Amino acid sequence: MQTLSLQAVAQPIVDTRPKGILDQTLAQASLRRVEAKEFVFVEGDPTTHVFRVETGAIALYKVLADGRRQIVGFAYPGDLIGLGAEGEHVMNAQAIKPTRLRCLPMATLYRSAAADPALGFKLYEALARELAATRDLMLTTGQRSATERVVSFLLAFSRRSERIGQDPCDFELPMTRADIGDFLGLTIETVSRVISQLRRDGLIALESGHRVRLVDVPTLARIADGAGRSAE
Amino acid sequence: MQTLSLQAVAQPIVDTRPKGILDQTLAQASLRRVEAKEFVFVEGDPTTHVFRVETGAIALYKVLADGRRQIVGFAYPGDLIGLGAEGEHVMNAQAIKPTRLRCLPMATLYRSAAADPALGFKLYEALARELAATRDLMLTTGQRSATERVVSFLLAFSRRSERIGQDPCDFELPMTRADIGDFLGLTIETVSRVISQLRRDGLIALESGHRVRLVDVPTLARIADGAGRSAE
DNA sequence: CGGAACATTGACCCATGTCAAGTGTCGTGG
DNA sequence: CCACGACACTTGACATGGGTCAATGTTCCG
After folding, report:
1. What's the whole-model pTM score?
2. Sign of CA dihedral A162, A191, A62, B129
3. How close A74 gets to chain B, by Cα (Å)?
């Protein structure tokens, strides 16, 4: 899942790197700050804008009538949110830490896309990446055990950490155990137990509940893909 | 899901039945037949074509190293498959009954899309619909009980049946119990047990394992959304 | 008609949910 | 600076939904 954020890596010496039209447009877009737990939009809101996360993190989730919650994704800096919904949003977007967003009016975006097929293609790609990520998550929640899910989650976060040029084996999880549980289809307690067990087994280490260090990545990788099963 | 397909509305007066450019292109595309259980493409295949299902049904799925399988969607007549993958496919597409497909070379599609933003938008919309469907499924597999999952599945199928102008309360499921299980994240046995129970409760009726009649839709709808839970 | 694939049903058991208690940890106000 | 309350997290005991294994029934096609 290499992201659209090529521009984040290739920063200008003299602005050699021609920025895409999307970046150009976004650079001028208004900035919005949201505090932790504040909503960017909720289900039913008219889809007036698309947002790009600049800093912070956002949880995207749906809820059932009785309050059960499924987080379908987290958005980190560089990610676009609000794409693909027509008319009104079908989910909630809530900040999990203080966050800054660029706000791009849908109308502007569509006008630009009609004029420039390359922009349209960018949006298409962004959506395709989201779809791929969502399907991977489905494979995880639908088929894996609790331990496999948590480990897959940690490894995915590790890969992301690496992708943005940070230590892939030592990172800060911005979300709570409840968020992880609602993402993986597990309860808080199960997430907590699995993490404790991984620590006891010496596969990960924690200093402060949210700072994770991956100690034995090969073993973790094996666990994620079902080591110790029938047809492994 | 009313669409942005303004271009579909604003069509010329002559040529009464305005077919979109996508339909025009597909009408000329080559036809391919696949038998039940035959693959349209598998993980790793180069993404040379996009397909539209004409008749039959296709299962789209991913597999884990040890063989566990997650069906991420079924494609029925009218649906596009193979969109959103770059370079190579990341999943398998297998017919669950004899199926006919229109095959559209990716290159042709992209060339057309570059020329006509309206087509690009169609593809974008198709992808957005898939994303929405996948997320709904995630909510189901991640948060619902076995009974809720099966009932949700039946109701979704019922809605589709209605959408294509057929009886929403009496339909033929093209897929096996194994397919349903791998779609919902349940075992064959559980699917079978739940269906038997629903029948015993008089909520559905079956003549031949695959022909389903929904008897008490209101109750089914209540079950799907968690009737009999804490905060219902 | 026969066999293979698919489906149902039952008995048992385990992974994970539920309920409950207890332990940090952080931010606020005294 | 400390005390307090609110949360988040951990841990334990127990319950249970759904998985596993196994036997049997059914359907469909050659």
Report:
1. 0.89
2. positive
3. 13
